[in-house]
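User: Okay, second chain of the day. Same drill as before: sequence in, structure tokens out.
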Amino acid sequence: MNTKIILFASSIILGIGGILLIFMPDFILAYFDIQDNFTSALFMQILGSMYFALSLLNWMSKGNLIGGIYNRPIAFANFTHFFITSIFLVRGLIASPGYNYIFWVITIVYLIFSILFTLILFTHPKKVTDNK
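Assistant: Same drill. Structure tokens below.
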């Protein structure tokens, strides 16, 4: 499994989400019909900073061997984030299936990354060799 592509993709997605949450919390709160006040905007910006930090971790680690015992903290952090968030997103969709399509897209993306990081965490990586 090519972890470089997975870490690159998750870095881009988390980075975009983080930047949107940091700089546009009012727009996101209004879009999801959440009460817009100072506290909710502040929590959205804090969440955005955590997304951006995980994005940077993935970006800087994308060239390293990851999986099994190699760089286990990075694999475990991503697995934990995507797996737990997937559980809550699916639970939200089951409780209220009338959410808009963006909520469905976010849930599907999180489920895919949850599966990929589960595979990365619990399988031994194959080292890429150059045949020169």
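The chain has a mean pLDDT of 91.

User: Thanks, on to the next one.
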